[in-house]
Amino acid sequence: MTTRLAVRALLAVVFWPSLFFFWFLGPFVFFLLSTTGSEVCPRLETRAEFLAAANGTLPMLLAQNLIYAVPIICLALWNRLSPEAARARQIVTCLKLFAVAMATGAVWEYGSSLVCDGYGQPFFSPLWQMTSYLPIVCLVINIPLYVLTFSLGRAFSMRDDIGEGGAVRPRQDGP
After folding, report:
1. Which of 107, 101, 100, 95 is nearest to 34 (CA)?
2. Interval 41-64: pLDDT, tens
3. Could you tell me which of 143, 105, 114 has the C-alpha nearest to residue 53?
C-alpha cells in the first residue's frame, strides 16, 4: 500500500509541473522555436531554401509533442495503479483529444512556417495560408482537454484515505 502511494506521489510530482510548464507555458516557447521567424524569412530567396528551413522545424515539432505527452502518460500510469472504468473512459477521451490537438497543432506550426516568405511572394498554395485559422481550432480542442486532464490529475493525486472535510479515514488493512 505504501509503495502504491509512493508511486502515485511520484507521478503527481511529475504530472503537475509538466502540466503547468509544458502545457501552459510551453506553447509560447515552442512556437517561437519551431517556426521560421521573421528574421529568417528575408534571408530565404528560393522555394527550396524556404522548404528546407520549414522542414528543419519537424524535429522540434516531434520533440514538442513528446514533451506534451508527459501529463497524458502520467494519467495512464495512475489509471494502471488504481483502475476505474469511468476514469479509464475519460483518459481515452483525453488521448483522443490529445491526438487531434497534436495533429492540428503540428499542421498549424508547420503551415505557419510555410506562409511567410519575406517578400510577399506566394511560394506555396493558398491552402497553407488557411492554417492561420488552426489556432482557433486548437483552442476549441485544448480547452476541454486541459479541463479534463486537470480534473483527472486532481482526482488521481488526491489520497484515497481522505474523506470530505479533510478527515482521514482509518486504514482497513491493519497496522
Report:
1. 107
2. 555 666 677 777 778 878 888 888
3. 114
Task: Say which amino acid occupies 145.
Answer: L
Give the chain as a 3 state SS string: CHHHHHHHHHHHHHHHHHHHHHHHHHHHHHHHHHCCCCCCHHHCCCHHHHHHHHHCCHHHHHHHHHHHCHHHHHHHHHHHHCCCHHHHHHHHHHHHHHHHHHHHHHHHHHHHHHHCCCCCCCCCCHHHHHHHHHHHHHHHHHHHHHHHHHHHHHHHHCCCCECHHHCECCCCCCC
Render the burial of 110-119: b for 16+ CB within 10 Å, e for the rest.
bbbbbbbbbe
Q: Which residue has the cell 510551453?
A: 26
**Among 123, 112, 118, CA closest to 47:** 123
pTM: 0.74
Retrieve residue 62's grid coordinates.
516531434
Domain residue extents for the chain? 2-158
Could you tell me the pLDDT band of residue 144, with boundaries at 50, 70 and 90? very high
